[in-house]
Amino acid sequence: MPVNQPAGVQQSSGLGVTRQFVSDLSLLKPQYYDKFVEKYGNQNYTQLLETIGLKAVVPAREFFHFESYGKLHSSVKITAASTVSVTNTGVTVTLTSGSHYSSGTRSPIRVGEVVEAASSGVQYKIAAVNNFTNGAHTATILPLKNASSTLAAGEILLFRGISEAGEASSAFNTLSNLIEKKNFSTTEIREDYKITDRAKIEEIYLDFGGGSFYTYKGLEEAVKRFMNNKEFKLIFGSDADNLTGTVGAKGLIPQIEASGQTYQYDTAANVAGFGIEDFHNIVRQIDFNGGAQEYHFLMDSYLRSAVDDALFAKYQNGAIVWANAGGSQELAIKYGFDSLKIDGVTFHLKKYLPFNPEAIYGQSLAGNANKYDFFGALIPMKEGRDAQSGDKIPAVRIVLNEPVQGKEVHVWETGALAKVPTSDKMELNIHHMAYCGLQIFAANQFIVVKR
Question: Which of 69, 99, 132, 228 has the greatest number of C-beta atoms within 10 Å?
Answer without folding.
Answer: 99
